[in-house]
Amino acid sequence: MNSNNKVKLFLVDDDALFLKLLEIDFMESADFEIETFSTGELCISNLSKNPDVIVLDYHLDGIQKGVMNGLETLDQIKALNPRDPSYSIIFPR
After folding, report:
1. Where on the chain is 4-aspartylphosphate found, per UniProt (predicted)?
2. What is the tens place of the pLDDT at every residue in 13-23?
3. Is the pTM of this model over 0.90?
4. Which end of the chain is more exposed for a tag (fewer CB within 10 A), N or C?
């Protein structure tokens, strides 16, 4: 967990409406520090912020063609942090 004791949560989904609804739902449920991303590439470029949990869309190909899907993003995250999987990754249905 980060220094202010809030769980740092990354939400990654290419559906802007669903992403906003998910963010609102998490904000109403607990006191999270939330960042949202519309592509796996944006999520990966921000991993230095050390999220505690990543909620990752399985597909990620609705808006931009040629971007990584959820599994490719997960593979990249694992490749960048092979020894320190200090966060959880969830694929919402």
Report:
1. 57
2. 999 999 999 99
3. no
4. C
